[in-house]
Amino acid sequence: MDKTLHFILLLIALCSVSECVQRQYHFVNVRKTWTEAQRYCRENYTDLATADDMNDTSELKNSVNDSGHQYVWIGLQRTSVNKWQWSSGEPALYLNWGSGQPDGGDECAYIFNGQFYDYSCSTYYLKFICSSSNNMNTGLVFVSQLMNWRSAQSYCRQNHIDLVSVRNQNESQQLQKFINDSHISGSFVWIGLFRDSWQWSDQSNSSFRYWYPNQPNNAGGQENCTMLEDEPLRRWGDNTCNSKFPFVCHEDKLILIREKLTWSEALRYCRQNHMDLVSVHSEEIQRRVMNVVKRASTEAVWLGLHNYCSMNMWLWLSGEVVCYQNWAPGNGTTPENCRLEKRKGAVQSGGDQRWISLPESHKLNFICRNDE
Ligand SMILES: [Ca+2]
Ligand SMILES: [Ca+2]
């Protein structure tokens, strides 16, 4: 076989390598109030448990070794802030409201003529659109069954991925085309936009929620903390924070080191004290990296990303080629000028937190990973 072709096939094979777990759950079978549990987790692990997606919910469920029926605290707490978010877990930065919207205490949104309208989550039954891996063209599936927003969300998560997100103008146009092509432009259609006032203990901005039907109900007006319900799927309910339950902590596998070192020094530091500089193989790891770098003291943060100048190619330290990509415009895709100095990859700590190429002698904060 042609050597180049063989190499390309090898790269394709490498791109399907499964990612390693970036967060580990620890069940603590001691009854504490929510605040006591939070303190315990921060002292012994990273924080009370955060969940980003359906994967996390099943890992949470598995982490709780059920010795008898009980409620179990996780790290979600009610605050006074009430902000719009996407069901998929992303913050809502693009909000294309129809005129005069949002106009009430409503907490969910439908789309009509490309614009968003807030609407009561539980009172109304609408058709909806799921994001899906089944439809290779659009990544979207239209469901004509009428459901309230939470049922629609559960349906999408069980059968597809989630209720659809509309994160920018481009996705808005794609969705509108899909709506026109599906001949449903006259209908109100649920999208994944909702708002709530819950916040994760570790400050993660994940808007993923997995409520048990009719929860959170804030019974008695004092239920400001979140627990896994005593039911087979371990979906979530609210309860009073002073109740004493066992709890789940999580341990982050990504650690931001707030020292300013060159790339090589950072690499040595991570290998001596942890495992390695972080490799960002997927959108999920990128999201965790984005959470971590918010606390950085430098404008960019080193990743385990290095450039092979002679081959004009970027590789992760873990050996994989760069399949998932998040380069800032003008970075990573054109040949590097490395006559004077080798180039390494960093992630911007502000803005849209994309990757940039920098000379390796720059002194930056960096992220180590810590598995095993
Ligand atoms: Ca409205
Ligand atoms: Ca409740």
Overview in brief:
The protein contains seven helices and 19 strands. By secondary structure, the chain is α+β, with helices and mostly antiparallel strands. The radius of gyration is 23 Å and the shape is globular.
Describe this structure in words.
It is a single chain. The protein has 372 residues and is an alpha+beta fold. It has 2 domains: 19-252, Mannose-Binding Protein A, Chain A, CATH 3.10.100; 254-369, Mannose-Binding Protein A, subunit A (Mannose-Binding Protein A, Chain A). 22% of the residues lie in helices and 33% in strands. Strands 3, 4, 5, 6, 7, 8, 9, 10 and 11 form a 9-stranded mixed β-sheet that branches. Strands 13, 14, 15, 16, 17, 18 and 19 form a 7-stranded mixed β-sheet that branches. A 3-stranded antiparallel β-sheet has the order 1-12-2, with helices on both faces. The longest helix is centred in the first third of the chain and has 13 residues, at 3-15. The radius of gyration is 23 Å and the shape is globular. The two termini are 38 Å apart. The chain binds calcium ion (CA) (2 copies). One calcium ion is lined by residues 215-217, 219, 223, 237-239.
